[in-house]
Every structure is written in C-alpha cells, then in structure tokens.
Design goal:
Layout: E1 5-11, H1 13-23, E2 28-30, H2 32-36, E3 47-54, E4 57-64, E5 67-71, E6 83-89, E7 95-99, E8 102-106, E9 110-115, E10 120-124, E11 128-136, H3 137-140, H4 144-148, E12 155-156, H5 160-175, H6 181-199, H7 209-223, H8 232-238, H9 243-253, H10 257-273, H11 283-289, H12 298-306, H13 310-316
Antiparallel strand pairs: 1-3, 2-5, 3-4, 4-11, 5-10, 6-9, 6-11, 7-8, 7-10, 9-12
Length: 318
Amino acid sequence: MSGGALHVHQATVGELQTAASTVLAPLAVTAPRAEAGTGVGAGEFRADIDAAAVGRAAVARIRGSGHLVQRSARAISSTDPELLKITLHRSPEPAAADQGGNQSRAHSGDFVVFDMTRPYRLAVADGCDVMAVGISRTELGRHADAVAARAARRLPADTGAQAVLAMFLQGLGRHLDELAGPAQTHAGDALVSLLLAAFTETEPGRTDTATELVDRIRVYALANISDPSLCVDSVAAAHGISARQLHRLFHRAGAPFAAWLRGERLARIRRDLLDPAHDGRTTAAVAARWGLHDPRHLSRALKSQCGRTARELRLERR
C-alpha cells in the first residue's frame, strides 16, 4: 500500500473485498451469515475500515459484521508481492484460521500469521475487531521463514514482546491519520522491530553458532555504519575470520554483506531525507552521515530500493 490513508464507514462486502485486496493482495470476501439472513441486522452487512501505510508496512483495522476471507490458489500470481499478513484479534467470538493444513481458533488477544503466497481461509464472527499488518518478507530478512512457519497458529499476546506489540498495534489503529513524514517512517521501523521481537523468540540452548556470529557482525556494522571504510575485509578482520568466511555466512543468511550494508545505509538516508530536521543539509551531507561519500549514484540507488529519488523524497512531504 502506498501513501495516504483509507477510511470506509459502513462498507459493503464488496467494498471490504476491494479495500483488503488493495491494501494486501487479491482476496475474496463473503458474508455467509448476512447473506443467509442469520447475522446481526438480519441480512445487513456493515464494516468500518481504516488503513494506512506505516513505514513500508500496511496496517488496517476492520470492525463490524462477521465475514469470510479467502486467498485462493487461483488468485495467487507470480507478480503479487511476497507478503506476510499478521492479524491481531480483539473480537468477542473466536476466529477460525486455516492454512497449509494448520487450523486454529483465535480468541481475543491472539495473533495469527498468514503467508500471502499460499492459499488460506479466515472466518471472523459478528462484532469483529481485527488489526491486520501486511509486510514484505524482505522487511523481515532471514526471519521471514520463521514467522511464516507459524501460519494459522494462534500466538497469545498476553505477555512479553507479544503484549507490547499488541498494545502498539492498538495505538496505531486509533491514530493512523496522525502519522506522516518522519513519524510514519519511525513508527514503521518500530513496528518491524516489535514484529521480530514477538515472532522470532528463540528457545534457550537452540541458537545456532553461525547465526549468533552473523548477528554480532550486523550489530558491529550498524554501530560503525557512518565509517566509509567499513567493508567486508575490515569487518572480517574485526571478528577474526576471513573475508571468504564472512561472504559464506551472509550468503547463508540470505544476502551478501555489501548488499545488506548498502540497504541499511539507504534506509537511513531515506529516513533523513523525509525528516524536516535535515532540511539544512545537502543530499550529499545526509549520505555522508551514513558512510556513503560518493553521491553520484545515490538517487538511482534510492529509486531502486525505495521507489523515489533523493529529490522526490524531499518533495514528497511538502
């Protein structure tokens, strides 16, 4: 979902389907009970929809009549974005989730994950109140598979990071209209961090040594990200390994070290270009702050990763 917020009051089933398909990917939405005249309002359907982009994620809140959401194999296309959908249920009655042979009943206060690249089914009852987050697998990096592995399994949000994420999402649902520019970007960064904290907890004693080393290298690189001399050789030397071994570790983790570092730098440059606090800095100065001292290809790189050139990013919030 790109720019702007979406608000539909007392939406029809068709309007809900259009909104859900626009925010996420093509979906089929029906209201079996309302169509049969057995739902609240004897055949009437109503839903309030609020949705907006939060950073690079899409966040939506749906409240109203019961309905059935289905992502069929026929609706899935190779051109669809590879999204994960995370839902938080605050409905009085449980929702029924089904994907890939996994089935669960999500009660109020439960999270459920769906992999949008595969068929799934979600049935919610009358009086539903659901927060949904659509996020690209690339945003979750090497953790995407771990999150997707929880598909259609309920995750209670009553303790720890799950409870913090639930409170954060509920706050987003109430204030989607108030987020813009840098605030939206920072909220998006926080959302991704909380999603990772809530869905990728590792059991003690089961952490892979190579994974630990990759994590330590990433922490080190981010702490020194403004250093233009940061590179494969310097980082490998700082960790007592060869450049070849570092290449091998990051290849297994899903992306070459140089590509990962460049992506992290570009994400921070984008954030600064959208922040009015940096209006007095040139684009070159902003880039240099994050270790990129050759601005010749910066706009093209930003266009490729963020969809906007440096100039377009600064004009976007005006």
